[in-house]
Amino acid sequence: MTTLLRTVFILAALLMTAPTLSGQEPTESDTATLPSWTSEFSLGFRSISSTALSPDGKLVAFVVREAITEGEKSEYLSHIWVTATDGSWSRQYTQGTSSATSPQFSPDGRWLAFTTKRGKGEDATSQVWRLALAGGEATELTRSESGAGQFAFSPDGQSIAYLARDPETEDEEKAKKEKRDPVLVDQNHKYQHLYLHTLGQTALDTEKPEDDPRLTEGSFHITSFDWSPDGKTIVIGHQRDPRINTGMIDGDLSLVSVESGTVTPLVATAGVEGSPMFSPDGKWIAYVGTGSKAEPVGLGDVYAIAANGENAPFRLEKTPDQSANLVAWRADSKSLLISESIGTTRQLLDLPVEGAVRVFSEQGGEPMAGVIGSPSLARGGTHIAYVYQTRDQPPEVYASPTAGFAPMKLTSINSTIELPPMGETDLVTWTSKDGKTIEGLITYPVGFDRVQRAKAPLILNVHGGPAGVFSQSFTGSASIYLLQYFAEQGYAVLRPNPRGSTGYGRDFRFDNVRDWGFGDYEDLMAGVDWAIEQGIADPERLYVMGWSYGGYMTSFVITRTSRFQAASMGAGLPNLVSMVHTTDIPDYLTAHQGAELWEDIEEYERHSAMYHLDKVTTPTQILHGMNDLRVPFDQGRELYLGLQRLGIPTEMVAYPRTPHGPREPKLLIDVSPRILKWFEANTATSSSAATSAKP
Tell me: the pLDDT tens digits for 595-635? Predict the structure, then answer.
């Protein structure tokens, strides 16, 4: 039977058996007109990101991404849209088959700059282009051999600073062509440095874009930067090399003279500093730091230092989760707007240089439900733009005055899509074994009777990280785990935020250090018990799935209990002993284990499913990307081969071209139907075995 026919049969069976929201059987006309929560339907929702406000606050540029799956294509296409902040109009500004991202308005508001690979075929590199808001053709500004990354207009609008990696030398290119190109691991780094492009008077009048002067050079890698208000200085965040692991343990700030390129150290502690931002009056530089030491488990406090480097930096008031992301300084240079997770929501906060932090995005005295993302504020601007979504509302662009939070919806990119009946989602809490309060989200089956509470099969879905968090984002969006797809098939999905999660403060995030698979396991299972006690979950039909750290927990859960009928491990790490020196983030894993492998190998073994494999009885599916560097592919293969040798029902699905999670839409939407098929097949097997065993 083909996948398409199997999907048709599953959906047909669902329409015949699933209750409707009203509790009545659907009529023939109802089923003919209502769409279904297929993976293809969820893929139709477009993601929205990267808002940018015009200097006068009247326009918002943003990026809309859609999936392209016709024929042989399986990719995403992003384009830039612009909307008026009075909500009067929205329109797409860039066109074509090449994605356009990272929109920015010029200081005079005449131009919209962005990055794209357009016009040079498959070997094109991303460059900065600009387009007149009044209309006309876009023009390429930079022509960096290795491609332009982050960029920003100078305050006077006469130039653009941008980051670009060191290009290959002529000798390196020649060696590659001649196949004499062995790779020296962790040597010959290609550092990212700062370049300056001078703009002409018109879009076509550029000054030798291929010869943009390089402002910095040396054995360091720039990760972020910001212009001083007078345009004479650029503050940079940098680390000693480009490796992702290095960014967890190293990061300093320096000042760069735009005229001479002289680099002057500003902040260089044993901690990690990054994301620097000048205040509008030029007196202060704010940044995110970890304090006096690196904190790979996760920490992000806001600090400030005098822009001239005099006096020591000082920490501003601690934010609720100590995981701040800087949005912008307010116009008076006395406070900053930041973004941070608070429980299952994401909020905007006001953080003064002197004084207590407060939630800005609140209504009726309470933080807003839902998730605020991609916030932006023009320098000295009167409005803030952002993307907002809730559990049952897809993402759209909103704006609010900065004087007080008064959100206004600006777009209808996704709001016009007719939604099928949805499984409702509740925010719930329960008490773990040690008395700790745990929060989570439960999505009920479509049409679930909340009064009668007929017991439903329950999927325990574990998030990654472990410092991830399940938030109140739209439950119908396309993702690895399609929540509404499972809900339409009659499943309840419980998404706990166990100890180690972001959004509940530093101490909660650090609570699972040297405790993976134990305290967090109790948090998860207490949530399952709660769902059973509430009459939501059928204790005989329990399933577990998770990706990355969620995959780790899935592998560990099946060594500790046989309560689940089937499991699905996505990109999981069942063997911390082999994982710690093969992942691209060894310091992250070492920080959680509290010791190097050779210092306490027993601790690594104690927390690894592979060392307890003889206890597993649960049929387990393994899903893994073949190009995964975060959790190497052989982690999944270890569990697969181990279960095979034990005679435990198992299958492994390897996704080609895939790093730490599907990047192609066709592979992304393959995951949930494949998991459902595994769960249902093993439910049938378990039921048959139980029936045959009866006298």
Answer: 999 999 999 999 999 999 999 999 999 999 999 999 999 99
- The answer to whether the beta carbons of residues 191 and 165 sit under 8 Å apart is yes
Phi, psi for residue 2 in degrees, rounded to 5: -75, 160
Does the pLDDT at position 201 exceed 80?
A: no
Residue 689 has pLDDT above 90, yes or no: no
Alpha carbon distances (Å) from 568 to 227, 230, 641:
48, 55, 15
Does 86 score more than 80 pLDDT?
yes
- The residue with tokens 């501003």 is 316
**What's the number of domains the chain is made of?**
1
- Give the contacts of 514 (CB within 8 A, at least 6 positions apart): 592, 593, 594, 603
Query: CA-CA distance, 3 to 315, in Å (whole number)?
Result: 56
Instruction: State CA 481 to chain mean position distance.
Output: 14
Residue range(s) defining the domain that contains residue 572: 421-689
The DSSP annotation for 522-567 comes to: HHHHHHHHHHHHTT-EEEEEEEEEEETHHHHHHHHHHHH----SEE
Which of 55, 120, 58, 112 has its CA nearest to residue 81? Answer: 112
Mean pLDDT on 648-674:
97
Q: Does residue 118 sit within a domain?
A: no
Question: What is the number of other CB atoms lying within 10 angstroms of the CB of residue 155?
Answer: 17
pLDDT tens profile 509-527: 999 999 999 999 999 999 9
Residue 255 maps to a domain: no
Do the domain assignments include residue 569?
yes
Return the CATH number at 507: 3.40.50.1820
Residue pair 270/225 in contact by the 8 Å Cβ criterion: no
Q: Are 548 and 464 in contact (CB under 8 A)?
A: yes
- Beta 456-462 vs 537-547: how paired, if at all? parallel
SS3 for 187-203, per residue?
Answer: CCCCCEEEEEEECCCCC
637-648 pLDDT, tens digit per residue, is 999 999 999 999
How far apart (Å, rounded) are the C-alpha atoms in residues 69 and 502? 34
The residues near 492 (Cβ < 8 Å, ≥ 6 apart) are 423, 442, 443, 444, 445, 448, 456, 457, 458, 459, 531, 536, 537
Residues 444-461, mean pLDDT to the nearest whole number? 91
**Contact between residue 324 and residue 335 where contact means Cβ atoms under 8 Å apart:** no
Output the six-digit token pair for 124.
């094109």
Residue 79 forms part of a structural domain: no
For position 202, what pLDDT does the model report? 45
